[in-house]
Write a sequence for this structure.
């Protein structure tokens, strides 16, 4: 599966040099990971992939993902493209018997997500989903603090993520359609809910509002007014399996200053606060805590929670590099410890419960 020098020959689908999550997170991380060799890049057109191969230093360039997945010079495939394309590309990689790393959301909907998860389980290949909040050093630290009893018994928690509204143009307008699967519900709320569940556990029951607050939006290129069907506000309240009360607020239609992400955990003996100017799953995160009635004070994150090289740029690339490192160990035969496609299916089922609660106006049992 790997080359003689034990480096995993990686192929990245969606390696644009102009925009996208691969450009902002994957490509800045990969050069710092000695277990990987960027063997190939793939974009949709010959002219763009040639540019990408030159910019990123890849030996091979493909504009057909089937050809890249089938190449004997590619050991593993990373899929970082628009959500509607995840299913076909991921399944092509699995059919080619290649370990795969696919961004979250894994599929456009629960049906696609469960289909992909089933295919991965059947293949037995290491298949990672990009729920990178689970490997953020701050989140790992806070999770351990909670488990070790720093706050005592957890009574309640509040988490939010506030992001700027999308300014639609020819490259982003598709994301305003809920059926495309890349909405504030699936992405911003999905990551936020997953981070909360990773740290404090799953919801037992919840109620919610899933709404569109800002529609229509004006395209920046054509000046056309476009109807928005993708949710831009998600509010969830409920009881966790531990019995703690939890509230989640996600807003992605702010036209001005945004306050990023924050988690507050309150217990019988103290509190913990995580804060990021971006979000808790992809940005730089600081941690503070206190006992009793004292104000929280900074708590430096121990080095043991970052296993990616220190040279990896802070922010979006760091957590992705952390995932790559876990993935590489699984490819080399170690026991998987990464967020799997089965985890992606579970998270999507939670999102289905959030939508059901909003549509029916009732409390919904989860799981």
């Amino acid at each position: 599966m790997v080359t003689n020098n034990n480096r995993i020959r990686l192929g990245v689908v969606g390696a644009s040099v102009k925009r996208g999550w691969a450009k902002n997170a994957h490509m800045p991380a990969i050069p710092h990971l000695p277990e990987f060799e960027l063997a190939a890049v793939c974009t949709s057109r010959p002219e763009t992939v040639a540019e990408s191969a030159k910019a990123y230093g890849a030996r091979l360039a493909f504009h057909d993902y089937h050809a890249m997945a089938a190449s004997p010079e590619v050991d593993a495939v990373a899929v970082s493209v628009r959500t509607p394309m995840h299913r076909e590309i991921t399944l092509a990689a699995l059919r080619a018997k290649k370990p795969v790393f696919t961004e979250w959301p894994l599929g456009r909907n629960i049906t696609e997500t469960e289909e992909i998860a089933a295919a991965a389980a059947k293949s037995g290949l290491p298949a990672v989903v990009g729920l990178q909040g689970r490997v953020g050093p701050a989140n790992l630290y806070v999770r351990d603090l909670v488990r070790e009893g720093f706050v005592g018994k957890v009574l309640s928690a509040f988490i939010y993520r506030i992001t700027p509204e999308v300014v639609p143009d020819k490259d982003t307008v598709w994301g305003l359609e809920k059926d495309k699967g890349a909405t504030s519900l699936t992405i911003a709320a999905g990551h936020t809910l997953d981070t909360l569940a990773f740290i404090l556990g799953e919801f037992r029951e919840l109620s919610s509002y899933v709404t569109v607050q800002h529609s229509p939006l004006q395209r920046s290129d054509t000046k056309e007014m476009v109807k928005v069907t993708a949710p831009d506000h998600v509010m969830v309240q409920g009881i966790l399996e531990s019995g703690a009360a939890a509230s989640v607020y996600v807003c992605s239609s702010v036209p001005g200053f945004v306050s990023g992400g924050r988690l507050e955990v309150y217990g019988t003996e103290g509190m913990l606060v995580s804060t990021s100017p971006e979000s808790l799953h992809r940005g730089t995160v600081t941690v503070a805590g206190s006992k009793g009635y004292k104000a929280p004070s900074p708590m430096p994150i121990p080095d043991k929670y970052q296993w990616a090289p220190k040279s990896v740029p802070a922010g979006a690339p760091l957590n992705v590099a952390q995932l790559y490192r876990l993935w590489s160990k699984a490819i080399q035969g170690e026991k998987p410890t990464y967020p799997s496609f089965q985890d992606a299916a579970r998270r999507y089922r939670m999102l289905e419960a959030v939508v059901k609660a909003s549509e029916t106006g009732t409390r919904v049992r989860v799981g």
